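Per reviewer request, we include the raw input and output of the structure prediction for the construct analysed in the revised manuscript.
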Amino acid sequence: MDISNKCCLCSGGLKSYTAFRKKDYLQCIKCNAIQMDPRYYLSPAAEKNRYDQHNNDPADPGYRRFVSPLVERVKAAYGTEAAGLDYGAGSGPVVSVMLKEAGYRPVLYDPFYLNDPGLLNDCYDFIVCCEVIEHFHQPFAEFKRLRSLLNPGGAIFCMTEVFSDTVD
């Protein structure tokens, strides 16, 4: 199956959407999802190299402010006894640091920096994905996997910038 002909979220048909930074983007005619043409996906090594350039410092007050709405949503929904997973924690797991400061004990998983596949065999009360879901190559499969990791009544908390037509 040529994935460039099907939406990676709902399997609907795709149409050309725009070109940005010499890469083509497609839009689903069924769910309106926008995705980069898979021809432009980075290799795992190139992707890690790009992530190594990020500076997500847990001590950075600006970044802490940025992720605080996600942390506050978790705190409002779950007590410190809840089992949590920071999925895609990265090299600077700011969300987990802030949750730990509040008495939580999240476990951290990241395919590049904290790759412990055994953590994906456990179940959790909540899962946080901060600035991660926009990097999923196959979001339907990723969300299905994440949902399978939840205890009954569990929740996935995602934070990413939402696209609008005002975004360049």
